[in-house]
Design a protein that fits this description.
- The protein is of the alpha+beta class.
- It folds into three domains: about 1-170, OB fold (Dihydrolipoamide Acetyltransferase, E2P) (Beta Barrel); about 210-360, OB fold (Dihydrolipoamide Acetyltransferase, E2P), CATH 2.40.50.180; about 380-530, OB fold (Dihydrolipoamide Acetyltransferase, E2P) (Beta Barrel).
- Helix content is about 20%, strand content about 40%.
- The protein contains 13 helices and 33 strands.
- It has a six-stranded mixed beta sheet, with no helix packed on it. Strands 19-12-13-22-21-20 form a six-stranded mixed beta sheet. Strands 30-23-24-33-32-31 form a six-stranded mixed beta sheet.
- The chain is globular, with a radius of gyration of 28 Å.
Length: about 525
């Protein structure tokens, strides 16, 4: 039975690790969010407030500027203030590199650019996966955080929602007042401004809203409404036999099959191994009877979100339209005074719909093995006669046990925990466990033992402590052991704190083992439980 539990745990862990980075994406009929990273943490901003996403522009420094402002830049004739988000978050500034992007945030008619380390993806979020909690915090000031986005499968990273309006109100109040004054102004100046606003609004409605991406050194784009999501390429792709070379295989995305196609292969370009920079554009696929059908287009990289005025958009020259390999291109955008050309692709012409339908139809929905494993695990959590079942784990070379009904789950330790600096010092951080925000404590810290470096044998044991679920990092989980009641003795009372955590000891004399039995409710003090 102990071997069975360890096999179940290993299988679930392997499944989680194999999909966590690639499948931490959400789709629904609700709001779109842009996911970006700062100093290794993931953040989100609602798409509606993002006017554009651009590369780091050339800056002009401004003396005596407000806190956090790096300078100003020229954005198609507009003066755009550029702000260091790291400085506002009180983080160390990171050197600009190829991944650096600027989020252009709309604010009551004004725009401000915020420099971020990198833009990860665009996702559509079900409101049920948004936790709006005043206690949500991270290594940045919590007053600008509006909640947290959890992944649907519970294995992905947490994305903390940033309220840029609050940030602008706090740091750039003068600009806010100036914007409000301009909107409320009267007289001939206001009338002229109103005409200008009207012209800009019409022009804005005619703009193309695109997502640009790179393929073999060339820049392409698709209309943003044709990109349902942008996700990372998973480590495992299920191969599809007897299909053309441009079909890479299928993956599961939120319990639905997603066929993957290589744009390099479709375009007849040289193919390189997939890397971390590759991205999948999830696009709708016209399959009769399945409005949710989609196809994943693998590109080399996703560059930015563009708004392009129609005056810079040209139809494909007639001579080029006659070539069959150019039918996929619907228009060409002339950017940066014509030095940058972006080819706009037509998704309708790009795909052979009947081919995608045959691929999607050849694969049935994958079974959710994790539920089956968890059911088997639950079925084994029973007591026989006077035997009690304990999960045995090791901390600093000593063996401890916890009654199996108090152990809700056993999972691997992720590469990084999300920091919560306002939490009590005992807490290491939080993780997303199948949609639940789980606080995590290192059991060594709880036991007053020096912490050990992270390693592959460590596990998080999830306990329910007085109605609150908390994860505790242990050095390793050894087995599930049946112990007869007569082998369990009361532990000596060596201190008040010890008596709260360890009240009994299993004395397995025949095996020359003594296992200290942990009381789940004694693992945290009342104030620590109340802070969760």
């Amino acid at each position: 039975m102990s071997d069975n539990l360890m096999e179940i745990t290993a299988d679930v862990d392997a499944q989680a690790l194999g999909s966590s980075e690639a499948l931490d994406n959400i789709m629904s009929d609700n709001a779109q969010y842009v996911i970006f990273s700062m100093h290794g943490e993931q953040f989100a901003v609602i798409m509606g407030s993002v006017g554009e996403i651009i590369r780091q522009p050339k800056l002009v420094s401004v003396p005596l500027a407000s806190h956090g402002i790096q300078g100003v830049a020229n954005l198609r004739g507009r003066v755009l203030p550029i702000v260091s988000l790291a400085e506002l978050f009180q983080l160390d500034d990171k050197a600009t590199d190829e991944a650096t992007r600027v989020l252009v945030i709309n604010y009551f008619g004004a725009s401000i650019g915020f420099v971020v380390d990198r833009v990860e993806k665009v996702i559509t979020v079900d409101t049920a996966l948004i936790e709006r909690n005043s206690t949500v915090s991270s290594n940045v000031s919590g007053r600008f955080l509006d909640g947290m986005i959890k992944s649907r499968d519970g294995q992905g990273s947490l994305s903390q929602i940033v309220d840029f309006t609050l940030m602008i109100d706090h740091y750039f109040a003068d600009m806010a007042e100036q914007t409000a004054a301009a909107k409320g102004a009267v007289g001939s100046g206001a009338a002229l401004a109103g005409v200008s606003d009207s012209v800009n609004e019409v022009a804005h409605e005619e703009d193309l809203h695109l997502i640009s991406f790179g393929v073999y050194g060339q820049e392409y784009a698709v209309p943003i409404n044709q990109a349902k999501e942008i996700v990372q390429v998973p480590s495992n792709i299920s191969q599809v036999p007897n299909t053309p070379s441009h079909i890479l295989g299928v993956i599961t995305l939120r319990q639905r099959l997603l066929p993957l196609v290589s744009l390099r292969q479709i375009f007849g370009m040289p193919v390189d191994p997939l890397t971390e920079s590759n991205r999948i554009l999830v696009m709708p696929l016209a399959v009769m009877g399945d409005p949710e059908a989609a196809v994943g287009v693998v590109v080399d990289s996703v560059n930015e979100v563009l708004r392009v005025n129609q005056q810079f958009v040209d139809e494909l020259p007639a001579a080029m339209e006659q070539h069959s390999d150019m039918n996929d291109i619907s228009a060409i955008c002339r950017l940066d005074d014509g030095t940058r050309l972006v080819s706009v692709l037509s998704p309708e012409a790009l795909f052979s719909t009947h081919l995608m339908r045959s691929v999607a139809g050849s694969y049935a929905q994958l079974n959710n093995k994790e539920d089956e494993m968890q059911q088997n695990y639950d079925n084994d959590n029973t007591m026989v006669g006077d035997d009690l079942q304990f999960v045995v784990f090791r901390v600093a070379g000593e063996e401890y046990g916890a009654q199996i009904q108090t152990v809700k789950e056993i999972v691997r330790v992720p590469d990084k925990l999300t920091d919560v600096p306002t939490a009590p010092g005992l807490f290491e951080g939080i993780i997303n466990l199948r949609g639940m925000v789980l606080p995590v404590v290192d059991m060594r810290t709880r036991f007053g033992i020096e912490r050990a470096p992270r390693n592959d044998r460590q596990r998080i044991m999830v306990f329910e402590v007085r109605g609150k679920r908390v994860g505790f990092v242990v050095d390793s989980v050894i087995e599930v052991l049946r112990i007869h009641a007569k082998m369990i003795d009361q532990a000596p009372n060596l201190s008040k704190e010890q008596a709260e955590v360890i009240r009994s000891i299993a004395n397995l004399e025949a095996q020359n083992r003594m296992i200290m039995l942990v009381e789940a409710d004694g693992l945290l003090a009342d104030d620590a439980v109340a802070s969760i």
